[in-house]
Amino acid sequence: MDTLTEHLDVVIVGAGLSGIGAAYRVATMLPGRSFAVLEARDTVGGTWDLFRYPGVRSDSDMFTLGYPFRPWTEAKAIADGSSILSYVRATAEDERIREKIRFRTRLVGAAWSSEDARWTLELEVSDDDGATERRTMSCGFLYICSGYYNYDHGHEPAFEGIESFEGRIVRPQFWPEDLDYRDKRVVVIGSGATAVTLLPAMAKDAAHVTMLQRSPTYVTAVPSRDTFSDAARRYLPARLAHHVARAKNVVTKQAFYQLCRSRPELAKKIIRTQTERIVGDEQLVAEHFTPAYNPWDQRLCVAPSADLFKALKAGTASVVTDTIETFTPQGIRLASGQELAADVVVTATGLSMLPLGGATFSVDGAPVDLGDSWVYRGLMVSGVPNLALCVGYTNASWTLRADLSSRYVCRLIRYLDRHGYRYGAPSTDGDMRPRPLLDLTSGYVQRAISAFPKQGDRQPWTMRQNYLLDAPTALYGSVAKNMVFDRPAPRSRPVPELQEIHA
Fold it and tell me: What are the pLDDT tens digits along the chain (503 aa)?
């Protein structure tokens, strides 16, 4: 082994919302441990720095999307992208985090050695001029917080005749700074969260915006401000108010999710009634906002302050449900024969999923096949030692689960220290019925199912979409269940005392 290779106790991959939160937890729960945050880009923020399209925002409230250790103090509960980015960057300025971030450093491969009890990481490091070189380093524990989206390109279906279109084609993931759509005719292809965000934002300046969807999506109107949380902040100290608002939103959202899963027909009626009341057009709701699937078979989209529906009522925007036959020089011809004139077409056709940021992994020389693996407690991979993946909730704020995962990782590392183990890996306990990691019927999930580990039919091999059940397990449950550890090693340093952790 190369003794000159830098070695750290923990390496976190990704300096977005999850990675910065993970860095805070490692710094505060594992004092004295050496760690670094590797970020492939040249700035903090991840998704919230990358996405620059009009109206980009969260579809979760900031009391649950924000960190539990850093109260959200701005007025809007559903925040715009720039506010979220500022929040993440301000958190990263913590002196315990700031100097640990290594920019323009991409993980391209990781090889685990059980003999040495460490990961050897192959890195691609870029300089100011864009030139790259390969470097290596090693770590005792590797924590992947880069999410599961491909940031280099999204899902790009092939459209007949697209090369003949004389207007401009725009992809939301790479929004051009020079795009001027004022008084232009815009067609947004898609019906997911990005399209639902773009339509009202672009309708403020465009001549008209049409959302062209192949099939309807559930869209629910939510307030931009949370009156309960405003009241809590008015009468309670900031940290306590943040926790009260967070708890209220966790409970109400989980209750609605359970209603959707247990009584889908009632949930459909509630959503449809709300939409009809806002739009005032039962036929429009029946044609364009009544999906064939049940609520939460796919993610629900939100319309803060009913902005989408208000744009439709104002006539500055419209929705068409149809399929594309071909692009034409002046727009899009649909299967029904209708033609949509367009100066700008935005392809909000979805993101692509990419496991482990595209890096390759091996354990003792054998490649890791994620698709043939099982997920343990929603964050570790069967048979792979000292590796965790940060995967948030699909039915609630990503950060709720991300923060639980980071705290669990820190508990596991402390457990290894306390018992003198160098590593631990999850081990399956018999035949299980496999289920997808993300149990959604959304296209972006279905296209990538085989590349991700499976979940099982029982704990600890299920990916529970329930913060109220996950929190006790992550914070207080056994970290040894279904885990296999190496033999105790001689202690090389004292185990630091557990410090007070502010949740």
Answer: 444 689 999 999 999 999 999 999 999 999 999 999 999 999 999 999 999 999 999 989 999 999 999 999 888 899 999 999 999 999 999 999 999 999 999 999 999 999 999 999 999 999 988 899 999 999 999 999 998 777 777 778 889 999 999 999 999 989 999 999 999 999 999 999 999 999 999 999 999 999 999 999 999 999 988 899 899 989 999 889 889 999 999 999 999 999 999 999 999 999 999 999 999 999 999 999 999 999 988 889 999 999 999 999 999 999 999 999 999 999 999 999 999 999 999 999 877 777 788 899 999 999 999 888 999 999 999 999 999 999 888 888 999 999 999 999 999 999 999 999 999 999 997 788 988 887 665 665 666 677 788 899 899 999 888 999 999 999 999 999 999 999 765 554 443 433 333 34
Residue 328 contacts residue 161 (beta carbons within 8 Å): yes
Q: Which helix (H) or strand (E) holds 169?
A: strand 168-170
Burial of 460: CB neighbours in 10 Å, binned 0-12, 13-18, 19+: buried
Phi, psi of 492 (to 5 degrees): -105, -15
Q: How many CB atoms are located within 10 Å of the residue 191 CB?
A: 28
The CB density around residue 409, as the number of other CB atoms within 10 Å, is: 28
With residue 137 as reference, give the H or E element that holds it.
Answer: strand 132-144
Determine contact, residues 448/370, Cβ cutoff 8 Å: no
Domains 6-151+352-485 and 162-231+261-347 share a fold: yes
Burial 288-314 (b: 16+ CB within 10 A, else e): bbebebbbbbbbbbbbbebbbbbbbee
Residue pair 184/162 in contact (Cβ under 8 Å)? The answer is: no
Residue type for position 284: L
Which of 163-166's residues contact partners 24+ apart within 8 Å by CB, and which partners?
163/327, 164/327, 164/328, 164/329, 165/327, 165/328, 165/329, 165/331, 165/342, 165/345, 166/329, 166/330
Q: Which of 244, 203, 180, 226 is nearest to 61 (CA)?
A: 226
Separation of alpha carbons 216 and 319, rounded Å: 10
The one-letter amino acid at 245: A
| Domain extent listing, the chain | 6-151+352-485, 162-231+261-347
According to CATH, the superfamily of the domain at 162-231+261-347 is: FAD/NAD(P)-binding domain (3.50.50.60)
Q: Which two tokens stand for residue 168?
A: 């401009």
CATH of 6-151+352-485, one of 3.50.50.60, 3.90.220.20, 3.10.50.40, 3.80.30.20: 3.50.50.60
